Fold these 4 entries.
Entry 1:
Amino acid sequence: MNMPEFPNIILYAIPFFVISIGLELYGSIKENKKSYETKDAVTSITMGLGNVLLGFISKGMVLVAFMMIYDNFRIFTIPFAWWSFILLLFADDFAYYWFHRISHQNRLFWASHVVHHSSQHYNLSTALRQTWSGGFYTFIFWLWLPLIGFHPGMILLQMSVSLLYQFWIHTEAIDKMPKWFEAIMNTPSHHRVHHGSNPLYLDRNHAGIFIIWDKLFGTFQPELKEEKVVYGLVTNINTHNPITVAFHEWVAMGRDVFSGKKSLGDRIKYIVKPPGWKHDGTGKSSTDLRNEWQESVGRSQSAVGSSQSAVGNEL
């Protein structure tokens, strides 16, 4: 099957990114919202540029892997047709959901994904804060697509479409979309939750385009007015150095794997266990933090209820 020419839409979208960030920045200054901080935005843009440059290498490698599977092992041959692009839209987004979810549950994948969560601000420039390492191995979550018969060119195009869609949801300028849209699609409100370090919001809303996956698989959390999103990491790295932003978690993971007296099993677990796990039991994963928070909230509510009950008895 001859592959049609697909444009590199990310490169074509760069002027749109620049204009959108400029407009959001203007609105932020005009309304005195302080959603931008110069060094933070410059770091995010630098990470984005690095991602694009490294993408010329990583995408070539990904294309070779996809083509090898497509040419030698594909089960079906899905044609270039309007309906196949609709199927691919959902198939790609399903793959993205599981990539994104596991990137929060497995430290090897978190080591590259943490870059995107390292900003303590939330604006359109944050969308550009992308990994420099993930493109070389996270594509494994998409290997099943050429296997079932989607052409690699189609897959790479749809992956770019997904990335473009997710740009506009990195903003506080939009509160809520219409209810029908919020019910189906990923939105700024849903994605603000994903970037929250609040225990309630940790590891929630992993959607790319469709929020339906989170609702189906139990990871959905609506944004609550009474729980303002606190952006960033549970323990922030407090640096604007792009090299540190890109590789700090790789360094930390390497230190945990290779230092100290540990069994081989524990060393491996520092790679495959969730972020925060420690072999001596002193670490706390996002699940631990959420459970502790829920218990504290429950105790607080019980205390309030007991107090109100006591007052009622006195009356």
Note: The mean pLDDT is 93.
Entry 2:
Amino acid sequence: MDKMLALKMFVETVRSAGFSAAARRLGIATSSVTRMVTALESELGAVLLNRNTRNVSVTEAGERYYAHAVAILKAIEEADATITDRGSEARGRLSASVPVEFGRRVIAPRLGRLLDRHPALEISLILSDEIIDLLGERADVAVRLGTSMLNDDVVSLRIGEFRRWVVASPEYLAGRDRLVHPEQLVEHDCLTFAYTTTEPHWSFRKGDERIRVDVRGRLRSNNADILREAALAGRGVALLSDWLVGEDVGKGLLRHLLADYEATPGNLSSAINVLYLPNHRGSRRVGAFIEFLREIIGEPG
């Protein structure tokens, strides 16, 4: 048995929650994955996965083995990178975790230029609004908008910033008093992020003036585009990133309200951060991706 191949198949089966899904991601037959994982269990004398007709789950022994297997595969990948990823050219696979809508709207339309610029670079783009474990998820780099949860095991690099706009559709605003001060938001149906279990509030700043507004509304979501679509449909007032609604405002589909104020949901910042593990310092792959991000963030619009 090829032990390294068996580890890869086992890890992918756990991540994919099934043999068939793992086989599709690995580009091999399902029977090959099943056979290799079964052989691994026989060699270890332990059941790593529970099987039934509907799904695959990890046993207690499997969870312990999975953690070690991920660490082993990552260590081998990093060992290879010390040779191949420190030259003048970016090469190899780069796994990047980016927020869903930021990835779709800002990164994806421009990703071709990064690939053209670095022909030996392979990109695996993971769209997720969750704060992931870079090591556990095998991600080389993560992009996070706003405040990042930092620790000594992660390098955080601020590469830019954005603004959040209070927006609503002309249809929603028709017949309502003109919104000129944040405190008037208590009279409106606000579309809010479900990023916390507490009641949402929006913070505003204008010079020395600081205002907190406890907003209320009938719709909450953890996805920015859901809130954008609701705002476009006239369902209320939303606080959304300029890169998400700038085009809608330009077309007159949404109106930018309270433009004299800096606004954030809760105490979040407006920073665009890149996170990576300390052992990726000097990585040409990571450096190329950061250079690409700085470039597109600095472009008008």
Note: The longest helix spans residues 60-84.
Entry 3:
Amino acid sequence: MPFLAQAPAPVLEGRECRIQLDRPRIMGILNLTPDSFYDGGCYTGLDGALRHAERMLAEGVDLIDVGGESTRPGAAVVSEEEELARVVPVVEALVGRLGPIISVDTSKSRVARECLAAGAHFVNDISGLSFDAEMAQVVAAAGAGLFLMHTPARPDRMQQQTGYDDLLGEVVAFLRRAMDQAEAAGVPHAKLAVDPGIGFGKDVTGNLELLRRLSELRCLGVPILLGTSRKSFIGRILDQQDPEQRLAGTLATVALGVSRGAMLHRVHDVAAARQTALMAWAVCRDPVVF
């Protein structure tokens, strides 16, 4: 049975910022990790990270997602100290030199707290508040925005749990509980967005089902974030084992995501994804106004 849609607010609020959702918005990935599946090791130094951020800003990125721990399937947990050493100096430099809207991709409350103190505006928690009991309070205390993603387990084990009796129903229930937890801690509804967790504890069939039924996540009444960029299910479908060859498949999912109501897209390739999203928006939006 499909879930009934609710119209999300036209604005997503963060710590001292607002993202207008009058068109699809692009979240650019800034991985500061040596082992991420696509660009691990590319931007581990401060200068390289800043150059990549400058490039994304020139390409029209709307917010930059800074991460210091790989969440690819099978990835090992990184210590708080290592994650902090990777991300805090970059967040500070981004705030001081470039001034973009920043989210920090972490499921650790201490990392979130220090990044928010350094100037980040959002926390992107892949665990949907399920890994660290203090995360919601940290986000609320800072007045930050919060992206809540569905995953059934930590990255080192999540692909051992890809079977569901009712995939979308379980994803919606998980995200609704996470939203309730966030709001109970003091994070306003207007500062929440949800992500179905493509590739996190799902097989190819499950990922495709979530993409087909993405619009049903609108029942939660908050913006939808979609993260498909260069992921392995695209490679499986297109027989492209090298993530470098998965851009076309990624852009197809961005366009389809726009058509199904995703207003935020987490991507490696900002310029291509932005153009794809805007073209899909022009086709899908009624009426179109330029």
Note: The radius of gyration is 17 Å.
Entry 4:
Amino acid sequence: MRNFDLHCHSNVSDGVLAPASLAARAKARGVDVWALTDHDEVGGIAEARAAAASLGLSFVPGVEISITWAGQTVHIVGLHVDERNPVLLAGLARTRSGRELRAREMADQLAAAGIPDAYEGALAYAGNPDLISRTHFARYLIDRGVCRDVPSVFRNYLIEGKPGYVPHRWATLQQSVEWIRAAGGTAVIAHPGRYNFDAMAYDALFSEFRDLGGTAIEVITGSHTPDQYDEYARVAQRYGFLASRGSDFHGPGESRVDLGALPPLPSSVTPVWHDWVI
């Protein structure tokens, strides 16, 4: 059985490693088919594709689009997208455009809480200034000694009700699916177990996503706990979704699961790659 890892991030968005370094790590970790899915950006795909080809690693171009649904941020992964597609590129550019203002508002809140210079500090960790995010602020807070690690950051800062939390109005679910489909890709709900929805809201999300042309959800992911693997396998069966698998790797020492280290998909689901020619 081939090892598919269809969700990870480079320093083009909020990861630590460059796309070529990620490709090398994926190959060394036993990954056979690898996708780069940076947040709202496809600028790392050319480097990733070339590096993967040089290593004999099968590559899937991808993206992870931030959306707002029912007042919460949800992520939609696109797999096998054409990164040159003008509809996708225009949509991603609009999604990125609000990040700087949001980041400055986050820094203002942190300054009011006694943590100065957070915008400049976070920016130093952002390989792409257009994609400055909470993860970059988290790295700054750790290196300043404010927090010990990423989990402690997100217990005390940058989440709703805590200093540094600023909501962002992202794309809509419909837009994200339309952009992915326009680029020839497959739309996947990323780490569905991570969202704070009740059963009724989850049903509405899954139903709307399916009706819009979304076809898969992540079942095995580094953002799920092991007990959620079977839960979301059952969700995939219930709604007729294909199942995806990906580590959601951001960097050594930061991610719960390394590239390629997840268990296989349950036999009860149909893999998102079941009809791919790779």
Note: Residues 19 and 48 are 5 Å apart (CA to CA).
